[in-house]
Write a structure and sequence with these properties.
The chain is of the alpha+beta class. 50% of the residues lie in helices and 15% in strands. Strands 1, 2, 3, 4, 5 and 6 form a 6-stranded mixed sheet that branches. It has a 5-stranded mixed sheet with strand order 12-16-14-15-13. Strands 18-19-17-20 form a 4-stranded antiparallel sheet, with helices on one face. Helix 5 packs antiparallel against helix 6 (108-125), helix 9 (168-188) runs antiparallel to helix 10 (192-206) and helix 9 (168-188) packs across helix 25. It starts with 8 loop residues before the first helix and ends with a strand. 34% of the residues are buried. InterPro entries: ACT-like_dom_sf, ACT_dom, Beta-grasp_dom_sf, NT_sf, RelA/Spo_fam, RelA/SpoT_AH_RIS, RelA_SpoT, TGS. Pfam families: ACT_4, HD_4, RelA_AH_RIS, RelA_SpoT, TGS. It comes from Carboxylicivirga mesophila.
């Protein structure tokens, strides 16, 4: 491999080792000629300027390219085209090689991939805030070729693994993006291992304290957990061997992120989460025997351990649209503990881990069609120019995660919809015109309303009427992003037509009164009648919400005021406007962007930052800057949706200011424990208490305590001292 002469000796060795690992990984799945093309691609990148370019973490981009290619091979199971695309990405982006040269040397498919990657790169150089139109273009690029999606996911995974090298701001930005888009997308593509690792890494960089706490607890309980798993598995192994099945059975600890979600969802402590692990049985079965042998294992498991019928999940009979196949059940194991058991074959397991790439390996197997339908649906929604990007991404993310329901058309065609979909969703799924005219349906030969929720296996026939029109409350009935998008567009069309009708009616009436509709008069009327937009005002005229007599009275009053010389309708000049400073402390505690002083800022109430916290500023819609902690529960959402409104923030001095902090405390409800806590706070630490609320249940108390502290050091000391009080179980800062 040829290298750019500017690459340092140490890094040359790192490059060569990475290159060797790539060749070893590629050999089993590629022809000799393929390896030659990979060498050629890497030489192009390594010898040009792209070879010495560095990413935000300071690493050589050529090293990053090789390691992304390794993810593509080892974890996605892709081969030559995707690997070469990954290696050439930066070379094409930096102009070391053109797309035409790529096509002539490596073929049309590689050129298509690199063009897609370059489009993504160009969009990332612009503002890709989710409410910006570039974000829609980014997703549309993804939907053009699935390998572009897979390569970007590989790149983001590798970036997350190296995120410790990046600045704190970049860590937040990249984590937000991965949490909001790429982890859900990996889930939708069936890449469960990658999705889980991404979610864990996001949590590591956005909620490190909780991540470390759960990791430590898992480590402490590992020995007991392993012992329990052995006891659970042993009798099953014996019975499965008796039946002559070839299998592997093992316990798998759930991810830190999924455990954290259970703690939040169940509102409980770590010790009370029962399903910290799952048992997985992987069968070595022939294709035609797969289903039968999976159900055979299910029979063995449920004979030995009592099943919970409501927890059976059969994704073997009807796989998920991303191709996922598995049989899940929850049974009552030793010590009366509920345990999840997953049953699948080696082929199913590979599909679960490598997603679409494994489908290409097992050609002709069902599941690929479902992914094509999904990508087609994404394209259709994205190509709607009227679509609000924020609305779409919220619907899009929900659709990625949710389970599905399978229903039939009158002709017997199978349709997949999001779980919870209604008759109205199904109508829009067939065609937007059918959806707009839907008045109900016949499900399994019974008449049902448009809000009827569809169940697996339903046969659905939509009923329409020509005089039916979409209504705003339908938005509360539909749940799929496609139906919401089509319905919102239809409602906008109706509102636009109504507004145009209202405008014509107003112009005619004003003409009769000898008035002209000027922009100034229109703006005064919109404001005077309390409307936000001209369109809303015009619609109200069309649907008779505003009587013309009121409009005439309004205009006459305007004329009177003008004659009297009153200026009550004048808007306040921006020149004379001074931001209120009642919330600013006496001296400048914060320095924002290291250049602004005396800025109108407030400390956000959602996370109550105190001196010493890592913070950032968020430009509020009403003006001024809200200061948030980096661990604020709303931080991910703000970075993702409104990245352009984020401002760097830094404490410049502690001053004599007091900051509000809220603590959650649990412990034994003994006599005097509250007094002990109060004494430590007020007498020993000389800290002022703002409020205290205690609730007791079955000998355990739980309380919230709000105090005023100088900085994080004071708060940390306080937390340690309260933890040392006999009978106190936990002390944690709220919003951490």
């Amino acid at each position: 491999m040829a290298l750019n002469s500017a690459i340092e000796t140490e890094e040359r060795e790192e490059l060569r080792l990475a290159y060797k690992r790539l060749l070893v990984a590629c050999k089993p799945m590629m022809e000799k000629d393929d390896i030659g093309l990979i060498r050629k691609a890497l030489n192009i990148t390594a010898t040009h300027d792209a070879g010495v370019a560095r990413n935000e973490g300071g690493e050589l981009k050529v090293v990053e390219a090789i390691e992304v290619a390794l993810v593509v091979v080892n974890e996605l199971g892709l081969s030559r085209i995707a690997v070469i695309g990954a290696l050439l990405y930066d070379a094409v982006l930096n102009g070391a090689v053109t797309s035409d040269e790529v096509e002539s040397t490596f073929g049309k498919q590689v050129a298509l991939i690199t063009r897609g990657l370059v489009k993504v790169g160009e969009l990332y150089n612009k503002n890709t805030s989710i409410e910006n139109d570039n974000f829609r273009k980014l997703l549309l690029t993804f939907a053009e070729d699935i390998r572009v999606v897979l390569l970007i996911i590989a790149n983001r995974l590798r970036t997350m693994r190296q995120l410790a090298l990046y600045s704190a701001d970049d860590q937040q930005r990249i984590s937000s993006e991965v949490a909001y888009l790429y982890a859900p997308m990996a889930h939708r593509l069936g890449l469960y291992n990658i999705k889980s690792e991404m979610e864990d890494l996001v949590m590591k960089f956005t909620n490190r304290e909780m991540y470390s706490f759960i990791a430590k607890k898992l480590n402490e309980t590992k020995r007991a957990r392993d012992k329990y798993i052995r006891e659970f598995i042993e009798p099953l192994e014996k019975q499965l061997k008796k039946q002559g099945l070839k299998f592997e059975i093992k316990g798998r600890t759930k991810t830190i992120h999924s455990i954290y979600n259970k703690i939040k969802k169940q509102n409980t402590e770590f010790e009370n989460v029962y399903d910290l692990f799952a048992i997985r049985v992987i069968l070595d079965s022939e294709l035609e025997k797969e289903k039968a042998e999976c159900w055979q294992v299910y029979s063995v498991v449920t004979d030995k351990y009592q099943p919970n019928p409501s927890r059976l999940r059969d994704w073997i009979s009807v796989p998920k649209s991303n191709g996922y196949e598995s049989l899940h059940t929850t049974v009552l194991g030793p010590e009366n503990k509920w345990v999840e058991v997953q049953i699948r074959t080696e082929r199913m397991n590979e599909v679960a881990e490598k997603g679409l790439a494994a489908h290409w390996k097992y050609k002709g197997h069902k599941g690929e069609k479902g992914m094509d339908e999904w990508l087609s649906n994404v394209r259709e929604i994205l190509e709607n120019p009227e679509l609000n990007a924020v609305d779409f991404i919220d619907d899009f993310k929900l659709d990625l995660y949710d389970e599905e329901v399978f229903v039939f058309t009158p002709k017997g065609d199978l349709r997949r919809l999001k779980k919870g979909a209604t008759v109205l969703d199904f109508a829009f799924e067939i065609h937007s015109e059918v959806g707009k005219k839907c008045i109900g349906g016949r499900v399994n030969n019974k008449n049902v309303p448009i809000k009827y929720q569809l169940q697996n296996g339903d046969h659905v026939d939509i009923q329409t009427a020509n005089n039916q029109a979409p209504k705003k409350d339908w938005l509360n009935i539909v749940v799929t992003s496609k139906a919401k998008s089509k319905l919102k567009q239809a409602l906008r069309d109706i509102e636009y037509k109504e507004a145009e009708l209202g405008r014509e009616m107003l112009i005619r009436r004003l003409k009769n009164w000898k008035y002209e509709l000027t922009d100034q008069l229109l703006n005064q009327m919109v404001k005077g009648f309390g409307y936000k937009t001209v369109q809303d005002f015009m619609r109200s005229i069309a649907i008779d919400k505003i009587d013309f007599s009121r409009i005439k009275e309004f205009i006459i009053n305007l004329e009177k005021k003008e004659e009297e010389g009153t200026e009550s309708d004048k808007e306040r000049s921006a020149e004379n406007f001074v931001a209120g400073k009642e919330d600013l402390p006496d001296d400048d505690v914060l320095m924002i962007d290291k250049s602004l002083t005396n800025v109108d800022y407030k400390l956000a109430k959602c996370c109550n930052p105190i001196f010493g916290d890592d913070i950032f500023g968020f430009v509020a819609s009403m003006g001024g800057i809200k200061i948030h902690r980096r661990t604020c529960p709303n931080a991910l959402d703000m970075h993702t949706k409104f990245g352009y409104r984020i401002v760097k923030a830094q404490w410049t001095s502690g001053s004599d200011a007091n900051y509000q902090a809220t603590l959650k405390i649990t412990g034994v409800d003994d006599i005097g424990i509250v007094t002990n806590i109060s004494q430590v706070i007020s007498k020993e630490m000389k800290i002022k208490i703002r409020s205290m609320a205690i609730d007791s249940h079955e000998g355990i108390f739980e309380g919230t305590l709000t105090v005023f502290v100088d900085n994080t050091n004071s708060l940390t000391t306080l937390i340690k001292k309260i933890k040392n009080i006999k009978g106190v179980y936990t002390v944690s800062r709220v919003g951490a």
